[in-house]
């Protein structure tokens, strides 16, 4: 059943973003889905339209580019700017290294994507929500925001920034009735580790050996739950892990 509501999901071509797009489509939302990979966006659009009868607006851009973010979002017709839910999902980790041996290019990619990209998208969308005095921003963080682990330095710092920005947004947007939620997943078997280890499938698979990690759909269910609560209820901060995982450091295998 169509709800007449619209969700914008960044990084929608894989992992949490794709699973969230499917969940919101199933619940009758219109979808604005963004990503860098044109072919995957087209495939996602087809899946959402054919599988769920959803109305879909794909936007191809890299959140690291302020100009690209602004141009793409400002190109939306007025009737697509009434965004009810913004899921800031686009993000990544690159490699594991001590701070003195870190790859500066990797640092910049993580900071530009995880922090600045979230800010660029939010900066464009929030004024539309403020004008309507309605909306919900859901920022995808990580258990890495809550506890730093060895060789995770910069990635952990970017997710700690997402945590802090979520708190700041919640305060700033309080007078406008806009909800802000940070969802912090633990280990989840998506493309995350494959990206972190730059295509090393064996190393990526080892991360999840010995226990049952979260699936992307598990996180999408949590995101949907937060978005589906009554207007007077807001989950500000939520950490979700596999049963075998206590936090970013302790996992029982």
Automatic annotation (TrEMBL):
Q: Name one Pfam family in it.
A: adh_short
Q: Which UniProt keywords apply?
A: Oxidoreductase
Oxidoreductase is among the record's keywords: yes
Source species, domain of life: Bacteria
Does RNA-binding count among this protein's keywords? Answer: no
Q: Which Gene3D superfamilies match?
A: NAD(P)-binding Rossmann-like Domain (3.40.50.720)
So what family is this one in? Belongs to the short-chain dehydrogenases/reductases (SDR) family.
Q: Which PANTHER family match?
A: ALCOHOL DEHYDROGENASE
What is the name attached to this protein's record?
Answer: SDR family oxidoreductase
- Which organism does this record belong to? Chitinophaga caseinilytica
